[in-house]
DNA sequence: GCTTTTTTGCAAATAATTTGCATATTTTTC
DNA sequence: GAAAAATATGCAAATTATTTGCAAAAAAGC
């Protein structure tokens, strides 16, 4: 298994190498799940990286353009960002309504069916967001409010 | 075909009958697609209804609780609301990335498949949001930026 | 009709995200 | 490797969606 380094990814995508940019990308690469801009910012702070929140936003924008990350917006109106392990890395999530824990779902390709159907309607460049909400096992058991 | 009136719906759900509440619900009932809180507010203004934007938000909240409407958040971070014709009226949308036109999709029940899969993971009360993005036929043809 | 409960309007608070601009850092060029 | 050109950053302020406190107004209950 090949380990891809943030630095070479940036170079590959023609992005200049700045301290914060590299750290933001790494935060996403090493995260076990999607992160909001604010969460990334806080991780950098904790690591002692001097970085501004707008810098985080601006870099996330760049990463989206370069297809390094994917994003989606939950019903709380906040966007989450996730490193794309490959250009066709596409998956969905389930969010626990109580503890907010988020789990990646490796769904089979039934969803392709949807996109086909939509292309037939005359749309092109079709993509989609699919997020699930529910209450996870441990919250159900612990009986939290 | 039965015509349901906003007023009787409110009564049925135990909601008091106020001028703006009825108008907000009607705006949703008569709309051909999902509306944001702000869009509803503007429709009321245009109709000459004296109504405040927070009133719109507060009523939408009520309608959600009473299962009169469904809501979802697009990638622009803005919530849209839609009247539920029946308690099991559940469907999805495709949004044109250029003209923002939104079309309802009457998808077959393949999606139930997903929810089953997730319940097996131990989640309960599972729901989901699924929205598509693409470029519609007329935008493709008109070659708008 | 009067009392209680609920809703509204308004202004202010929150929160996520974006932007302008001067400064700092990177990349490019020679 | 230094200077010039291009790009990125920090900071503060602007924007936008949404929420909230509170006093006044309207609706429901009796």
Folded structure, characterized:
Two copies of one chain form a homodimer. Chain A is of the alpha+beta class and 145 residues long. The first copy, chain A, has two domains: 1-84, Winged helix-like DNA-binding domain superfamily/Winged helix DNA-binding domain (Arc Repressor Mutant, subunit A), CATH 1.10.10; 90-145, Ferric-uptake regulator, C-terminal dimerisarion domain (Dna Ligase, domain 1, 2-Layer Sandwich). Helix content of chain A is 41%, strand content 23%. The first copy, chain A, is built from six helices and six strands, in the order H-H-E-H-H-E-E-E-E-H-E-H. In chain A, the strands form two sheets. Chain A has a three-stranded antiparallel beta sheet. In chain A, strands 5-4-6 form a three-stranded mixed beta sheet. In chain A, a hairpin with a 5-residue loop joins strand 2 (69-73) and strand 3. The longest helix of chain A has 13 residues, at 53-65. Chain A is globular, with a radius of gyration of 17 Å. The model of chain A has no long low-confidence stretch (mean pLDDT 85). Strand 6 of chain A pairs antiparallel with strand 6 of chain B. The structure holds a DNA duplex (30 and 30 nucleotides).
